């Protein structure tokens, strides 16, 4: 039987192995941000330990950064967290894309963008959405602060080899249906913990046809299904995305590296612990209506009825969720009115996302009762979008055009949805209070968010609106 | 971190599935750079009303549940964000053990690293414990050496734990210190492979 890409990468990274014990695996790239790292650096300092491989470590600031007046940070505690990262990077010799850097951005946007993320790597970061980097054919997963400290000190982690789960997606996506809808659809069918203990490999015709950025959106939300990581075997799309990026090899060295990368793809006869098949033809634009990402339905559907729940626990969860969300069982998704639109986050803030949203709103106006934000994922995305005039399209339509950061995905900065109000958001989590205490989040694709901004409610972009960009 | 063998304490039930780390500790409290002092913010939006008063309906606020050190929860506890502030907050509040039918992977790992036991029991066992703890002050004993949970009325369940973590927790060892003993092996690994980036 052949090997999966997960087996291949794992085997190449085992430093130490003993029967019945976790493996000690080597970490190729460690990404760091301001929120989950300060206690790890303090730990090193307390024990007089050094950072083993500063050149395999890369830091940026994204969670706290303001997206307007970006140097004016009102909260002294947040400011302290940011200056602490600066001091730590300086003291331990770690490269930092700080506030002044043209490379600053959401850590999961800049990794691939700078070519730091490469096929075959093991990548960690103190952030659950590290699974994003798997789109380039890497095993990439989120870790806690104790593990951040462990990687800083040793460049390794003790890990039990995960199980493997293949998700094969075949068929043809309908017009207006994006990779965001695909992952939301998978979560709606399989729940928020189907991936526990597994690394997912996404494959099939639909994945093959997807661009690198679309693949990142899918891998990004693997954690929402409880998976350790999600990845995609690298192919021509991956290689051409990486060519010429800052940290990828150049010229002949690149060609040689690509030859090695080609070997990584899962063998045709590779065996997986589990397989899930997805028919892309049936997927419609999706909208989450509850308080976890599996509480999601198609735009034509309605909120489920309590009587249709499988058991008491599920019924209680549904009851709590629709109460928090201010919705009623059986209510039509298309009747939900929204007051805020957020286009951004490590899920959907890349150039293609912004292009699709801009195409939708070009020459139109944001609904008078809606406040709409576009927050590019990085300074580089912002610059490229501006060179294409997307900022002008958004602003003419009534959107605010912001600086790069995590922003309203988790509202650690001042970008907050007020209590009781609704936001159509391209982010990844609709947990209670995620976008502000009492705020109600509906997860959607960028084009669905853009359309919701125009209409003040959810509309079916596969029908009502012409979308030339798709 | 000091080692331990048994934990005896009062249990509180929180019969909810998919409790995410955003609920365990909301994002506005993640800005501090220390590991301590997070207990006051634990379950903040559930524990307090909008006016900042204690919410009397919330499990942890009920008089019989005061000074509980064992939390009994439902499926997929600790899902979502990788924030280690979640176990820091639980531990700072006074919890030493969380019992559930399943845990999110990163949260599970984060608990162990902080000497807090995430105990996985069968769904029926958890349902039994939840019912008991909901109705009366309820005490449990966890024996790490024997890998058992018992109450004073004959309940007995065994929990799975890897040999690795059992050893670490019984002895209270520092994981980094252990890994650094393999320093030469890591260096050898680094020398032996072609540099990827």
TrEMBL record, chain A:
The keyword Electron transport does not apply. One of its GO terms (biological process) is L-leucine biosynthetic process. Its cofactor is [4Fe-4S] cluster. [4Fe-4S] cluster binds at residues 346, 406, 409. Pathway: Amino-acid biosynthesis; L-leucine biosynthesis; L-leucine from 3-methyl-2-oxobutanoate: step 2/4. Its EC number is 4.2.1.33. It catalyses: (2R,3S)-3-isopropylmalate = (2S)-2-isopropylmalate; citrate = D-threo-isocitrate. GO terms for molecular function: 3-isopropylmalate dehydratase activity; 4 iron, 4 sulfur cluster binding; aconitate hydratase activity; isomerase activity; metal ion binding. HAMAP family: LeuC_type1 (MF_01026). Heterodimer of LeuC and LeuD. Belongs to the aconitase/IPM isomerase family. LeuC type 1 subfamily. This is 3-isopropylmalate dehydratase large subunit.
UniProtKB/TrEMBL annotation, chain B:
Pathway: Amino-acid biosynthesis; L-leucine biosynthesis; L-leucine from 3-methyl-2-oxobutanoate: step 2/4. InterPro entries: 3-IsopropMal_deHydase_ssu, Aconitase/3IPM_dehydase_swvl, AconitaseA/IPMdHydase_ssu_swvl, IPMI_Swivel, LeuD. GO terms for cellular component: 3-isopropylmalate dehydratase complex. Residues 1-123 form the Aconitase A/isopropylmalate dehydratase small subunit swivel domain. Keywords: Amino-acid biosynthesis, Branched-chain amino acid biosynthesis, Isomerase, Leucine biosynthesis, Lyase. One of its GO terms (biological process) is L-leucine biosynthetic process. It is an enzyme of class 4 (lyase). The keyword Lyase applies. It comes from the Bacteria. Its EC number is 4.2.1.33. One of its GO terms (molecular function) is 3-isopropylmalate dehydratase activity. The keyword Lyase applies. It catalyses: (2R,3S)-3-isopropylmalate = (2S)-2-isopropylmalate. Transmembrane segments: none annotated. Coiled coil: none annotated. Heterodimer of LeuC and LeuD. Catalyzes the isomerization between 2-isopropylmalate and 3-isopropylmalate, via the formation of 2-isopropylmaleate. Belongs to the LeuD family. LeuD type 1 subfamily. This is 3-isopropylmalate dehydratase small subunit. It comes from Cytobacillus solani. The lineage of its organism: Bacteria, Bacillati, Bacillota, Bacilli, Bacillales.
